[in-house]
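Journal club prep — side note

Before the paper discussion, L.F. wants everyone to see what a predicted structure for a comparable chain looks like in token form. Sequence:
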Amino acid sequence: MRIMEHPILEKLKENEKVKIRVDGKEIEAFRGEPIAAALMANGIRIFRYTRKYKESRGIFCALGRCTDCVMTVNGIPNTRTCVTPVENGMEIETQHSLGRLR
């Protein structure tokens, strides 16, 4: 679900639709929108699992200040998805613990 019209921000400008893969599943997103926004719009709420207790985490601050939204993006772990723009063909994986470089 996306907010297409907002009383203050007005109507969302739709950029080119692209395809990204999240844990092997292809989803649609708008080029340039934050990865976290694309995931939320497609019903994906869990972005990573904590190291010690294996608890799920998702979007929290949405400003790039915390690390709750980090995922492995194109093989790079600990990528803050709330400030990383979508590009066509991105490979995104739910991160477990600290993540690993490929």
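L.F.'s comment for the group: The two ends are 32 Å apart (CA to CA). Keep this in mind when we get to the figures.
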